[in-house]
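User: Hey, my collaborator sent me this sequence without any context and asked if I could get a structure. I don't really work with proteins. Can you help?
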Amino acid sequence: MVTVTRKGSQTMEEVRKALLIEIGLGSINDVVREDEVTFKGLNELLEVQHATALKDYIKIKEINAEEIESDPYIQAFKEVPKTVSGNLAYSNSRKFTKNCLAKYEEDQRDPGSLITKISYCYTRKTLYLPVLYEGLIKKDPWMTVEPHEILTHDTRAKYVKGNVLLLGCGLGYTAFRLAQEDQVKSIDIVELSPDVKKLYEDNVRGITPNNNKINDIILADAVEYLYTTNLEKYNHIDVDIWRDTLDMTYPYLKSLALEDRYPNVKFTYWIENSFYNNLQTEILRILYKRFYRIEKDLITDDIPIPGLDILAEYIVDNERVMISSTQVLLNFISYPNLRRIVKNFAINNSEGVERIKKHIESKVKELDDLIAKANEILVSRSNSTLRK
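Assistant: No problem. I've predicted the 3D structure and written it out in C-alpha cell form, which is a compact way to encode the shape of the chain:
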C-alpha cells in the first residue's frame, strides 16, 4: 500500500503542496472552455477565475490555416460529398472557428509543480474540416481531422514500418497517412462498424495514394481480433478504437497485456500520454483524500474517469511505496513507472480488468439513461410549445 510519511527532517508540507497543487486548483480545462474563448481573452479569463498561477502552464500556438488546408488528406477529402450510411455520415462541415482555442498537444504534467500543462492552438481563418458524425438529426462528431488529430497521429506515424495493423478505421486518416510512407509495406484495418467500413470504402479508399498497400477491411471487434489472431505477421500495431480517455481504459488494458507475448511487434496507442496524465490525477486525488481527510468535493469538481478510478485505487492499495518527499512522489507517478505497473495489472489481474469493463458499462448506461431522459424532456417541451 502507498503511504505518506515523514522521513528524517523532511516536513509533510512539501508533499502536501505537491498533492494539492493539481487537485486543489482544478484543471485548466475547468477554467477555459474550448471553442468559446478567444486566445486574446485568455489572460483576462484566468484573472477573473483567480487562476493567474496557471498561466505558465498554458501553451498557445498559432496554426497556419493554409498549412492545414494544404494537408494532402484534407485536400483529397474536399472531393468527398456528404455521405450517409446507417446512423453515420461523412462530411466536410466540422467548423474550426478562427481565433478560438482548440486542444493541440497531449496533456503533460510538469515534473516540478505537478500541474498539468495544457496546449491550445488557434487559426486566424475559419476552417471546415472532415468529420464523422453519429446521429443524423442531433449530429454528434465521433471523429474529426483537426490540428490535434493531425499532430497526435503524425507523431506516431514516424515509428511505423513493415506490415501494419490498424485497429479502428474512422475517417481513414491514419491509413491515408501511412500508405505514403516508403517503409510501410502493407496495412490491415480492423473496424467494428459496417457503416464506417462502407463509408470508408465508398469514399476514402479510392482517393488514397498507394491504396494497393491497404488490404480489405476486417469487420470485427478489435479486442477479439487481437486475441484470436497470430499477431507475429505484423511489425506494427496501432490502436485507436476509443473516442477519448473516457472510454479508453478497458481496450487499452487488453491491448497492453499482449505486448510481452509479441516482443517483435511494436504497439502504439492514440493519446496514451493523456491516459497516464489522467491516471496521475486520479492517484493524486486518492492520496490527498486518504491522507489529509479532505472531502472529495473540496478537492476538485472533476468527476473521476470511469475505469481509471478503479485502476488508481488498485495502484494505491497494492504498490509498496512510502512517499516521504516530493521526489519520491514524482518517481512513483512517473510515466515509465506507471506504465510498468499498469502493464503488470493488465497481464496478471484479468478479474480486475473485467471489473473495470463492467464498471465502465454501468457508467455509460447511467449516462445514456440521463441523455434519454433529457431528450424526452426536450421533445415534450417542444411539443408543448408547438401546441400553444
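In plain terms: The longest strand covers residues 88-96. You can pass these C-alpha cells on to your collaborator as they are.
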